[in-house]
Amino acid sequence: MVMIFNFPFDIIVNILNLLTIQEIVQLRLVNKSYNKLIKEYGFKLYFTNQKWNIILSDPTIEKRHSSSLSADNWQQKVSFGYITQQNWKKKKFSSTVVTKYHGQSLIPKLKFDKEKLLCCVENFIEIYYFNKYSYADFNHRKKRFMAHNNDVTDILISGRNDEIYTSSVDSTIKKWNLKKLRNNINYRQDYYSRPYNLTPKKTFKGHKKSVQSIYMFTNDPLNLYSISFDETLRIWNTETTQSQLEIQLPGRPRVIRGLSSKNNLIGVGNRSKEHLTLYYVTPNDLVKSTEIKGHQSTVYDLASNQNLPNTFVTGCYDGVCRLFDVRTMQCVASYRDPYDYHPVFSVDYDAYRIAAGASRNGIIRIFDLRYNKNHYNIHQGVKKGARNNDGWSLYLGNNRSPVYSLQMDHSKIFATLSNMTWMLDFSKDIKHQRQNHHKMNDVSCLHYTHSKKWLGLG
């Protein structure tokens, strides 16, 4: 048998890159040397290749073996990711209502990172911190503060020292530091229903109407981008709060997002003939791109993914999600529920799938990102018209509200409606879910495939 250890290390890495998870596990059983190689590099390479972002270990295992588990325990991370992947295939998940709102929120939004979930409810920001050893399990101590004089329209997590930005209908943008909220511990039960008095670090004024959306590149914290119903795009200096550049937009804007930090590309979805306007960021200006022409429908939401830097997704008025390649500026695939034409209000994606929030009935549509209808295999044995790769949908209870905002990673989907925020968790063992069902604020959540069989027409 040829010893793999006689090869140069870069060749060894390329060999490990070609192995499946079953082959990696089997290779560990050969001898101690192979076991050490797999533990140090094999699982890490597999985890990285699968693009499983924001993955943490099982909290019950971590508590029992806290001394042996660390951030570099790739074996445990791969196990977590593999279970999650199987649950996605089987459409197995737990559904939990994180919070319910009193009344109706005009423009609810949410954002989350590894540490916290942020929800805007009217002019307040609500914060839920995740437990240290259990991602997306909360400590149930909600913290909230009044952010603006009118409804909050967008939230931006900057990733720097608990800093966030908020925009509002009151035409302002504010910068906040949440460190005081994190450090403020109070165990009185009625404390968490009271708003905390937090003072903004900076306030940005200049827009004449509602600031609809804001964005900042993670590698460029000095520049903040905003769009407003006054049909302008502004660039702000985050240190001086001064507007450095103002550009007139072709129509009323909906959303602004960075589409590629590699190419410094920004996209603006707007109500105009263009529907989607792209700008390249230069040191002193924004250069409008003419590479995408005639987008077929108004863009309500945009999403990009750091693990897939050459792609971005649009959610559109015509109910279609479109996947674009930044290198060619071409739409390479489109996805739509063939029996539901409601507009897409919110969209996000990971390395495997797209999640799209519909404008009615609390529906989230799920599509396989790797599937392109142009390459549909007609020999799959599927009935005519009932295509099994058209995806499936999640029906969030008896609710007629649009899914105004959603965000996903490999194992979770968070979605906000007009009166509640949901968490859909694909990472837990189903038996564990049933045993702890009484602990969940659970509401019926159904799923169905996009096929005529579900409609009784198959």
Describe the protein's topology:
Layout: H1 9-17, H2 21-28, H3 32-50, H4 59-64, H5 74-90, E1 94-100, E2 109-112, E3 116-121, E4 124-131, E5 134-138, E6 143-146, E7 152-157, E8 163-168, E9 172-177, H6 179-183, E10 202-205, E11 211-215, E12 223-228, E13 232-237, E14 243-248, E15 252-260, E16 265-271, E17 276-281, E18 286-289, E19 299-305, E20 308-316, E21 321-325, E22 330-335, E23 344-349, E24 353-358, E25 363-368, E26 392-395, E27 405-408, E28 412-416, E29 420-425, H7 430-435, E30 446-449
Antiparallel strand pairs: 1-29, 2-3, 3-4, 4-5, 4-6, 7-8, 8-9, 9-10, 11-12, 12-13, 13-14, 15-16, 16-17, 17-18, 19-20, 20-21, 21-22, 23-24, 24-25, 25-26, 26-30, 27-28, 28-29
Helix pairs in contact: 2-3, 3-5
Describe, in plain words, how this protein is organized in 3D:
The chain is an alpha+beta fold. It folds into 2 domains: 4-87; 95-449, Methylamine Dehydrogenase, Chain H (7 Propeller), CATH 2.130.10.10. It is built from 7 helices and 30 strands. It has helices at 9-17, 21-28, 32-50, 59-64, 74-90, 179-183, 430-435, and strands spanning 94-100, 109-112, 116-121, 124-131, 134-138, 143-146, 152-157, 163-168, 172-177, 202-205, 211-215, 223-228, 232-237, 243-248, 252-260, 265-271, 276-281, 286-289, 299-305, 308-316, 321-325, 330-335, 344-349, 353-358, 363-368, 392-395, 405-408, 412-416, 420-425, 446-449. Helix 2 (21-28) packs antiparallel against helix 3 (32-50) and helix 3 (32-50) crosses helix 5 (74-90). InterPro entries: F-box-like_dom_sf, F-box_dom, WD40/YVTN_repeat-like_dom_sf, WD40_repeat_CS, WD40_repeat_dom_sf, WD40_rpt. WD repeats lie at residues 145-179, 204-246, 292-334. Pfam families: F-box, WD40.
